[in-house]
Amino acid sequence: SHQRYFPFKTRDGKLLNRFITVSNITANKEIKEGNERVIKARLSDALFFWEQDRKTPLEEYAKRLDSIAFLGKLGTMKEKSVRLKELALFISEGWCDNKAKQTIGRAAELCKADLLTGMVGEFPDLQGIMGYEYLKDKEPGVALAIKEHYQPRFANDQLPESKAGICLALAEKFDNLVSVFSIGEKPTGSSDPYGLRRQALGIIKIIIANKLNLSLNSIWNKALGSLIGSVRPFADEVAKLPYPEVQEFWKAVAHTHQILDNHRNQIKNDLNKFIEARLYQILDEEEHINQNIFNAVLFSIAGLDNLYLFQSKLNVLVKLSKDSIWNELVEVVERTHNISKNLKVEGDINETLLKEKEEIELWNAYKDNEDAIQKLIDAEQYEEASHRYHQVFAKPAQTFFEKVFVNVTGDAEKDNIRNNRLLLLKKINQLYSSGIADLSRIPRK
To answer: Does the pTM exceed 0.85?
Structure first.
């Protein structure tokens, strides 16, 4: 890449000692030999760094990481390594065994060590790769996690595959996003100096590919907590950055030693919107997703917090949108939402206030099927839950809308009847909207 040469490889990917170079003048022996001399010198340099680096264990390089600053003001690479260990272990809870967690801890401590090697100093693109090469014979699992924690490095790059590599790769990207957003240098327009759009896409692809049930909000909270824990001694200095919201954030950290709730919520909201935009970009480019369906899942109560479940619900809705039940399903959720959306009353249905046959039938349908539908939703069986919901409510709800006048008024008793009916419709709506999607955002055909 440095010399703009095209290398030759065998069919199985082994590098050969041959290359092609391109010249804008007629090729001759001098050009050929000149390019050979240059590449030999580069390879000699690389061999020198390889031999020198291997004389020092990776652990020794890791001890010197406090000499490298992270983003200028956010502590050192040593402190970042500590944050990565905390966050990667947090992400690993529930799906990694103790052996994988040990690998995560060890890899986190060493994953930035190769930044201090001669090879990476000369060839920065090899960070992570050299850590792998220097450690693979001694600790192959740890070495692999070190290499994988930068993946995917570009659009179609391979995703990490080992559990330790997955956790560390996610921790690396989450920490980078939180760090940059905390100093007010988030991407704007075409400017993205820290490659955060690519890293957000990496987070999305890793989580969805591995079907990880992770809460974004929990991870943001953990990452922010780890960040201020390591940067707090420098908070007054960071507060001098030329962004008013950043100054307020870090001044509060310096004085209270914690993040104020409004600051935490603002950063989390900005990060979620950033992830949301990248997710829609992927789905629009790869699947031409309908934005109304995307918004229906996005604005459900569950929202974007769990990327894997979000994608699962989206896939089900895309499939259902081509099904014969779609319009009736949308109608039930939409009409129950529109009629009950302004209701402030909470609580249980008062059966003594159910006067009409149609509302009694609708209440019985809800009462007899709520638990079964909710269990399907909790089991992530969204298609089955949707069909059950349609089967239970489509006809009785339609009959109710035709026969029962909801907004009765006149005296206290009628007000209670009205609120009871509105509460029934709200419960029916929320059974679907809270667990799967807010279909009131879908235009009915």
So the answer is: yes
